[in-house]
Design goal:
heterodimer; A: 200 residues; alpha+beta; 40% helix; B: 447 residues; 5-stranded mixed beta sheet
Chain lengths: 200, 447
Amino acid sequence: MTQLPVITPYFADKQEVVDEILGRYPDYGRRSAVMPLLWEVQRGERHINEARIAEIADIVGMHATEVKGVMSFYSTYHEHPVGKYHLQVCATLSCSLAGADEMYDYLVDKLGIVNGETDKEGRFSIQKVECLGSCGTAPVLQVNDTYFECVTRSRCQHLLDQMRADSLPEPWRERGGDNVSAEKAQPLQTPASQTSGGES
Amino acid sequence: MSDAVADKPQAITSRHDPRYQVTLYEHVGVENAWTLDYYLSHDGYGAAKKALTTMQPDDVVGEVKKSGLRGRGGAGFPTGVKWSFMPKPDGRQRFILCNGDESEPGSFKDRYIFEDDPHQLIEGLIIAGYAIQATKGVVYIRGEYHKGYERLVAAVKEARDAGYLGKNLFNSGFEFDVIVHRGAGAYICGEETALMNSFEGLRGNPRMKPPFPAQAGVYGRPTTINNVTSITSSVHIIRHGANWFAGMGPEDSRGTKLYQVSGCVNKPGVYEMPMGATFGELIHDFAGGTSEPAKAFIPGGSSTPMVPFTDEYLSAPMSYDGIVEKGSMLGTGGIIVIPQEKCIVNFMWNCIRFYGHESCGKCTPCREGVATWMPKMFQKLVMGRGEPGDLELIETMSDNIKGTGFCVHADAAMWPIDASIKHFRDEYEYIIEHGVSKYPRTTWWKD
């Protein structure tokens, strides 16, 4: 006789997590918790399967199809498991001007997978994504939740090597534009000329 | 007339003006600026205290109205006027909603506020919440900004523990708390009604207006939605006074604003400048000039029409009306400089692909036109399969798509296409005639 697998609910031993998430929202806004709960499952399992969708639906008092409808609306919830290192390449305007298309081709070449795929070992997956808000430090490669900015070819190569050795480095700090130093960042005094000007 | 001008000091419209000082962006980039200790040691929460203890809510609204602050999210609606649309308190819960779903290509100012100066945002929310008498603030932050989310959540906790959020703030009897809600990657959720749906756990489709958010917003309750930097601007307006803010920028657009520069410039990034400074000042004096010859720039995020990179446009002031006269819009102030060697057709293919991907699918003209036909037309051109008549077809389609959607997503996708055809028609004609681009360069990645 074949034994049907028993699925342990994801939140079976995480009631305090559920309570914390539900507690953020007012009583009449219970369904607002659907997105944070989806995030929670995805963080733990790298995707959200049907059983988890049904479980979340029960928690927030929605139908499973409604939860799936919400989930499928967004591009960062995954139905199928992504790799341990989920590589998200921003392909929109500023990154494209900085070579994001070539970076994508490079990753496809090196990893042998294309947009939406996960490799056999489950180590890498690639997703082409839209603007990540890193236009000033383009091109950007988002690995799981972390942004790696101003990714040159050599930095990309280095990152791949590091991930293959399972030691994802800390992101380097890139920040163009205004950079007010600590000494200069003092409480602003309204210049006297303006104060008097405003009153006259 | 000349007497009146002589009485008032000249408004600051250049960052070179010695009277100008950076405020919104003062602490961004400073190590540990995201901690409460740092913020408090730099007059943090002083403006909130001033508002709550010395001003009535209507005074705060009046001060922001007087300052001339206009919404920084793109549409430029006067913030104080928006606040005054809230109905009289009737016992229902009221919300101040902060739109941090910054997804417009070319815009990245809010990200650094979340990451480096979250307390400034919390203080702004307290002030805005007090002004419209809302006891709950919601920050909707886009899902990809994970570091910003963590910093903001930590800052909210710090503020709560230290009594800057909660009951009876500054012994004024005013109660306020903040909910941080994380999105999950949808451009359309930056549209205010779509954002409310998304927050409520629905699909992020835009809602019908009216009712406007002030009447029936989040959970059907009175709500005001503002951009991150509209809210943080209010901190400085309260701290330094409306006159200080109104002393910068031309008549139609007062104050100071964050501009973002990306593309082929030497020092891309976020720069704070007074309204009314010129594009040339920003690009040449602060962003270090172009790193290679440029032919066009987008003045305010991808949905604003591009303009040629010539002195005529570079000398235009960065103000809401100043750039409209030149046939474009200020939008979010996200400037993308396009290099001479970039094929405009290819560039627009990238752009329309973005809008196609981000169409929510609610309205047929947008779902079919923006998400399907238009990208296919551009793909056809880029692949070298263009035929005579294709360009006219694109123009006709664009005319038929505009104004037919529930929200402005479809229009926002068409404006840049129209502008690219207006200014670079020759490149379209070339690629149709020859099957290859006039500017075939494909290598842009640095080693």
